[in-house]
Specification:
Elements (H helix, E strand, L loop, with lengths): L12 E11 L4 E7 L2 E4 L7 E7 L12 E8 L9 H10 L13 E12 L7 E6 L17 E2 L5 E2 L4 E7 L22 E4 L2 E3 L10 E2 L7 E10 L8 E8 L1 E6 L2 E2 L3 E2 L4 E6 L7 E10 L10 E9 L8 E2 L1 H10 L14 H13 L14 H12 L1 E5 L6 E5 L11 E2 L5 E7 L8 E8 L4 E8 L1 H7 L4 E5 L6 H15 L4 E8 L11 E6 L4 E12 L7 E8 L9 E2 L17 E5 L2 H8 L1 H10 L3 E2 L1 E5 L6 E9 L4 E7 L4 E4 L9 E8 L9 E4 L2 E9 L4 E5 L15 E3 L6 E2 L4 E2 L3 E10 L12 E4 L11 E5 L7 E2 L3 E6 L26 E9 L5 E8 L5 E4 L10 E10 L2 E2 L4 E7 L17
Parallel strand pairs: 12-13, 25-31, 27-29, 51-58
Antiparallel strand pairs: 1-6, 2-3, 2-7, 4-5, 5-6, 8-22, 9-21, 10-11, 10-14, 12-21, 14-20, 15-19, 15-21, 16-17, 16-20, 18-19, 23-24, 26-30, 27-28, 28-34, 30-33, 31-32, 32-33, 35-37, 36-47, 37-46, 38-39, 38-48, 40-41, 40-45, 41-44, 42-43, 42-45, 43-44, 48-49, 50-52, 52-55, 53-54, 53-56, 56-57, ...
Helix pairs in contact: 2-3, 2-4, 7-8
């Protein structure tokens, strides 16, 4: 092996450190990210040392490195002991510590133990997703723990959700669908579209959103992914299908029995014991007319939901947040437990639990604890007040939960100094945009709701933006946006008045009441107290501000479309890829012809290797090329994903225009770009996106035309491949892998397909003869006269610029010192060789073998036409077998006798 001289191109940095994350103890650390890329996804809930193995998280050695090493997790419980790791690190820094370090109880912290942090001399930005729901700050079990955890029910799919699907023909039995249900089945080329799928006329089924024409034996297949962190926390999955005709359901490759009701209305329950931690796959399919049915229609819809909790991370009940902010004596207000009205807090907790209004939020001391509590109250539309009668704190949710007849009634007899004002139409807001924190995307997202009636009245959109960053999913954000829009879009009345303190002792903010006043046309209008200002002991008059209750106002609204969150994850996937020894033309374009020719002159057996890969999905950015030359895998370079497709049908030697399917990123292709199908290089000419028809030049550079089967992969790797810059020698066996990269993950080496490649001095080899004809035809099935072979020459050194030549193009001068050799093998009817002749046909472009010179039993002639230069043969010679049709060749001497018995 000849390698480039090693030189220092960068440095790797390691860090030992102690970081305090937050107050503790906590329930668990659920996710660790560096520079917004996921590094550790296992949930940890006890003190331990974890190993992060993401050395390529930031792009590997070619870019910014990654993270790798041991990190000790310290949850800060009351009995936590000193960290031996931290003691050892401190002892290395200075003997002054003498083992006198804190156990760091009451805080959650982490210790980096000589952790690799990348190729830059600074710590990468880290994010630690922590959970504290069931543990209070003092380590005790959470108050009212059974209602503390709220798991938003977003683990569901509707019939009109977006699904990954494909349509295939040729099925005769439902059992033939089983292979498509496997977890590791490669569905990267399937499409994503909105259900239902198919076409059925006059059936009463929900109309299909994705049209599929019926055909006997045609199958519609759906694959839906689920990433389940903790299977024990997930309830049974209820699946419903409508299918025409036969339907099947699989979970992780195991068939699930269907309960079929009317008109192929099927249901199934997938029990939790079938769930696995990590990726799970739900597969559903319907086949037209199999096992029976009419070919007039085909149809499939799918919906599912979890019976109880979903597998997404949980939120905490806001009632529990507010209560702990009041009672915590370290960072909270420090109210005694006895001064909390548990009944009101439990009532609020029950309502919020039923509403699935959980919150995930952090508090920092940049805001006061009172401001933090106010933020939680705004999220859930609640009031917190100190009851003047019981002297206990109460939590009151503002909901449409009252009977108007039971409300306190106020009028001129018990209030005074009434001021009245009604919001004008111009002051109304008709569009509300809520910003929330989207847990699935790990970033802020927005949802917008609008009052379409108000927009029509006001002649345009008047919008207001509100932050509710404690909410973690679009469903909940949409609900609270509608709640606020109902208040902001209504022409609500507001009032203020005075009342005696003795009459209003039990009043509180948020309390509803009825107000009547003839002078303002008010008759038992439902109002809510917004503010109460009580007297100072000398003047005991109470001042009240109130607003008309929004629950009594009608509203029409529409929610702007929010793209659905699929259950697929953003983890790096294994890419369909191809490995190759780099052809001469690519080396010339990469390094220049003079440099390449000089190297080959000194070391004719050297070669380079490369790789191309197809993007698994749109979340993938690029891939890193890793090569193992015998001492383990090393990262060599990065590669961009290449344009790709599959052959729709078989193609033969002569096809230059044909149909493709599963076309991806073809907009990147330019005229004359190299494309590889199996072992043949073709040149791009044009592509019709409407028909998926491509036009190409066949058998370019050092390859010849070949037959290719349907579904063969098409790699448009010109300009979109990765080339290993190291030089190798002929005969070396290498293993290549493409490690894909997403915005938050890098594929591991053990998850990637290895491609074995043996070097064969490809770059130095002459180009093969081209435009070969037998008796004036390309690839004839048989001949009836003497065997006549014609061809044209090619020149590796000349074919380095301009328009690439097709194998069928005219001749150019042959490369200097190159010979052309012809081998003709005569085969009998059993393809057994009976005679072989070798001819050096250098300088010629034709050769004739008379039939009279052939063996009597010759029925086939095998042709091998190749070039040789300095003992190096061309990479792909012309090889073909033609039949001799001598059996009925002219002149005929045939007598036919007819008998009529």
């Amino acid at each position: 092996m000849a390698k480039k001289k090693k030189q220092t191109i960068g440095y790797k940095y390691f860090a030992s450190a102690h970081f305090v994350l937050c107050h503790g103890p906590i329930d668990a650390i659920t996710k660790i990210s560096f520079n917004d890329k996921d590094a550790y996804l296992n949930e940890e809930n006890a003190n331990k040392t974890i190993y992060i193995n993401k050395p390529s998280l930031f792009g590997g050695d070619e870019q910014s490195g990654g993270v790798q090493g041991n990190i000790e997790l310290l949850f800060g419980r009351a009995d936590q002991q000193k960290s031996s790791t931290l003691q050892r690190i401190c002892a290395k820094i200075s003997n002054a510590f003498g083992g006198l370090i804190s156990a760091y109880r009451g805080v959650c912290s982490v210790v980096f133990d000589n952790v690799y942090i990348g190729t830059a001399p600074n710590l990468p930005d880290s994010k630690w997703r922590v959970k504290r729901i069931h543990t209070r700050h003092d380590g005790q079990v959470q108050w009212y723990d059974e209602k503390a955890e709220i798991n938003p029910n977003i683990f569901s799919g509707k019939i009109d959700s977006q699904y990954k699907y494909v349509v295939k023909d040729g099925f005769t039995m439902l059992s033939q669908l089983a292979p498509y249900s496997a977890i590791d089945f490669n569905d990267t080329e399937w499409s994503i579209a909105q259900g239902p799928f198919g076409y059925v006329s006059g059936s009463g089924l929900p109309q299909a959103n994705t049209f599929v024409s019926p055909s006997i034996g045609r199958a519609i297949m759906i694959r839906e992914y689920f990433n389940i962190t903790n299977p024990l926390a997930v309830g049974n999955l209820i699946v419903r299908m409508r299918h025409d005709d036969g339907g099947v359901l699989f979970w992780n490759g195991e068939q699930i029995a269907l309960s079929i009701d009317d008109y192929y209305n099927s249901t199934a329950t997938i029990s939790t014991d079938k769930f696995r931690a990590g990726r799970n796959i739900l597969f559903a399919a319907a086949v037209d007319s199999v096992p029976a049915g009419s070919p007039s229609g085909i149809y499939l819809n799918l919906s599912y939901e979890a019976e109880t909790n979903s597998a997404t991370e949980s939120d905490i009940n806001p009632s529990h947040i507010i209560r702990e902010c009041l009672t915590n004596r370290v960072w909270g207000i420090g109210v005694a437990e006895s001064n909390i009205d548990d009944a009101s807090f439990k009532k609020a907790a029950d309502i919020l639990y039923d509403e699935q209004m959980g919150i995930s939020i952090k508090w920092t001391d940049s805001t006061s604890i009172n401001e933090f509590v106010d933020n939680i109250k705004e999220h859930i539309n609640a009031q917190l007040y100190l009851d003047r009668v019981t002297n206990k704190w109460k939590l009151y949710l503002i909901r449409d939960d009252y009977d108007v007849a039971d409300l306190l009634s106020l009028d001129e007899s018990n209030i005074r100094n009434l001021d009245f004002e009604r919001r004008t139409l111009a002051e109304c807001v008709n569009s509300v945009t809520v910003t929330y924190w989207d847990r699935e995307r790990a970033k802020d997202s927005t949802v917008t709701v609008q009052d379409i009636a108000r927009i029509a009245q006001q002649g345009g959109v008047i919008s207001q933006s509100i932050d509710y960053k404690g909410f973690t999913n679009s469903y909940l954000a949409s609900r609270v946006a509608l709640r606020d829009l109902k208040t902001l879009s209504s022409t609500l009345a507001s009032v203020s008045f005075d009342v005696d303190e003795s009459f209003s002792e039990a009043w509180h903010e948020g309390m509803p009441f009825k107000l009547s006043d003839e002078s303002y046309g008010l008759s038992e209008s439902v109002m809510r107290i917004r503010t109460i200002k009580r007297g100072d002991g000398i003047n005991n008059t109470v001042y009240v501000e109130a607003i008309e209750d929004s629950f009594s106002s009608p509203m029409q609204s529409v929610i702007e479309y929010v793209p659905p969150i699929t259950s697929g994850d953003s983890t790096a996937k294994n890419a369909t890829s191809i490995a190759f020894e780099v052809p001469y033309i690519e080396l010339v374009e990469q390094y220049g012809q003079d440099e390449v020719d000089a190297k080959l002159s000194n070391y004719p057996e050297l070669g380079y290797v490369g790789m191309a890969a197809i993007r698994p999905n749109n979340q993938h950015i690029n891939a890193s090329l890793y090569v193992d030359s015998g001492a383990g895998y090393d990262e060599r370079t990065t590669l961009d994903f290449c344009p790709s497709a599959s052959l729709k049908n078989d193609i033969g030697y002569l096809d230059s225009s044909f149909e493709l399917e599963n076309v991806a990123e073809f907009e990147l292709l330019e005229v004359n770009h190299r494309i590889q199908v199996n072992d043949e290089i073709i040149a791009f000419v044009s592509f019709d996106a409407a028909t998926n028809a491509i036009t190409v030049k066949r058998g370019c550079f050092d390859t010849v035309p070949q037959k290719h089967a349907a579904s063969s992969k098409v790699f448009g790797w010109d300009n979109y491949s990765g080339i290993d810059g190291l030089e190798y020698l002929s005969g070396e066996v290498l293993s290549l892998k493409a490690l894909t990269l997403t915005g938050s993950d890098v594929l591991e080496l053990n998850e990637t397909t290895a491609h074995s490649l043996t070097l064969s001095s490809r770059a130095i080899r002459p180009y093969p003869p081209a435009n070969v004809k037998i008796n004036g035809q390309y690839y004839p099935q048989d001949i009836e006269t003497d065997f006549i072979l014609t061809w044209t020459d090619r020149n590796r050194l000349q074919q380095t610029g301009g328009v690439p030549l097709s194998w069928f193009d005219a001749a150019i001068s042959i490369e200097p010192n190159t010979q052309t050799h012809l081998i003709l093998s005569q085969l009998d009817e059993n393809l057994i060789e009976s005679a072989t002749s070798n001819a050096n046909v250098t300088g010629a472009t034709s050769y004739t073998m008379p039939i009279s010179s052939m063996q009597a039993d010759t029925r086939f002639v095998k042709v091998t036409l190749k070039t040789v230069r300095d003992s190096y043969e061309c990479l792909q010679p012309f090889e073909y077998i033609v039949e001799l049709s001598q059996f009925f060749s002219a002149p005929y001497d045939l007598t036919v006798e007819f008998k009529n018995d």
